[in-house]
Amino acid sequence: MARGGATSHLERHGRTSEIDALTFTDLTGRVRRFDEALYDTYADGIPVLHLGRIVYERNFGALEAHLQHTCYSITKSYAGTLAAAFVDEGVLDDTKPIPYYLPELRRTAFEDATLRELMDMQTGLDYSEECADRCASVGAYVRACGSRPRPAGHDGPQTLCEYLRTVRKEGPHGESFAYKTINTEVMTVARVTGRSFVQLLHERLWAPLGCEEDGYVVVDAAGMPLAGCGLSLTLRDMARFGELMREGTWRGKQLIPASVVHDVQLYNDPSKLPSDLTCRNQWWVSRNELRGFFAAGIYGQRLYVLPEAETVIARFASHPVASGAANKPITSHRWRRLSACCASSGPHTQSSPTLHKEYGARCASPSRHPKSPPSCSRRRSNEEEMNANQLDEVME
Fold first, then answer.
1. Which of 25, 110, 211, 278 could form a disulfide with 105 if both were Cys (CB 3.0 to 4.6 A apart)?
2. pLDDT at 274
């Protein structure tokens, strides 16, 4: 996706020294400084926007402001936002079953799943993303997409579309949350609009936001873009997307319907998730005191939108552990401290209130990292580690 057009300028209002000096008490009882915690969570880079201005920005290791970095499953939130906008505009009907738009998925596991059930990850598909299981179906998915080497004599699906037709149904749709990347791949709206995911992303978001740099999306052997995990971009451009999601407007133009943004912000359906999170339009919605929402990718990729604090936080990382379990003791309180600082005119040095749940010693603090990212194959095999029983440990 070529940047094209005029780049939108992000004003700066530096508060680096103030934010670096913030202290907080993590879930293990250790007092930390904000800047030290960035190293302890394997951060590659982080910008913080308050009222649309950059108040903090740091990059580590090989990352620079103009360099792209994979965001993994944050891609899902871009795709979910586009789909929700088309639903709001009447282009899509989220109550329709998937074959209404994709007839070739009749007599497959998606036959009686609605678009809304895919958008909110509530399908009953026989599909596992357990990285510890070498027989898990995620392996077949990434091989079909070409993201993992195929063994000699491989005769399985050669493309994403071929793989989707092999998925079977495990239980009823709509009854429980089930994080499955293939939901996002089917959810994309290319058939209805006549435009690919990449084209829609560029036309509806990339160009109007005035992104600084080009973006890249992984495609399979047939040229199908991977909407579930394929996007690489710069931190500032990802932060622009987060800023857009505060109200749906950018430089006075309504790029995303306000009703879509507010639907994500206000969504609260605790019945299908055993945690303090819900999922709406491929965004994670928090029910804690921050009242924010965020996009998440493995190995520490995050995009936090905190409307009440008028703050957006973007982060790239190269954590050696795919899930967020190792980061949770640190990040849970760090973002609370940062949001309080941004929402105030003066520095803060007191620790945040204790969370509702204590995770204790099972979430050991990670050591400082050597800045060598894990291999692509290891990342892909761990990408789908999340499920409903792990969310408390994963999503921070």
1. 110
2. 66
Nearest CA among 180, 185, 241, 236 for reference residue 212: 236
Q: Number of C-alpha atoms within 13 angstroms, CB side, residue 46?
A: 25
Q: Which of 254, 293, 246 is nearest to 89 (CA)?
A: 254
Residue 331 is assigned to a structural domain of this protein: yes
Q: State how far the alpha carbon of 6 is from the alpha carbons of 9, 52, 215, 241, in Å.
A: 9, 18, 15, 16
The predicted pLDDT at position 148 comes to 81
Domain-embedded: residue 139 = yes
Contact in structure between 365 and 40 (CB atoms under 8 Å): yes
For residue 246, the Cα-to-chain-centroid distance in whole angstroms is 16
Please state the domain count of the chain: 1
Instruction: Give a yes or no: residue 44 inside a domain.
Output: yes
CA separation for the pair 194, 254 (Å, rounded) = 23
Q: Which alpha helices (DSSP H) does the chain contain, by range? A: 16-20, 34-40, 74-88, 115-119, 137-145, 160-164, 181-187, 190-193, 197-201, 235-244, 258-266, 328-342, 376-382, 391-394
- Measure Cα distances from 248 to 84, 91, 100 in Å: 12, 18, 29
- How far is 277 from 357, CA to CA, in rounded Å? 13
Q: Mean pLDDT for each 10-residue chunk of the chain (396 residues)?
A: 88 93 91 93 96 96 96 97 97 96 95 97 89 67 88 89 95 93 89 92 96 96 94 98 96 96 87 80 85 91 94 95 77 80 54 26 28 33 37 37
One-letter amino acid identity for 105? Answer: L
- CATH number at 221 reads 3.40.710.10
Q: Which residue in this structure is represented by tokens 């060598």?
A: 372
70: CB partners within 8 A, 6+ apart: 231, 232, 297, 301
Query: Does residue 336 lie in a domain region?
Result: yes
**DSSP secondary structure, 65-121, as one string:** TT--EE-TTHHHHHHHHHHHHHHHTTS--TTSBGGGT-GGGTTSTTTT-BHHHHHTT
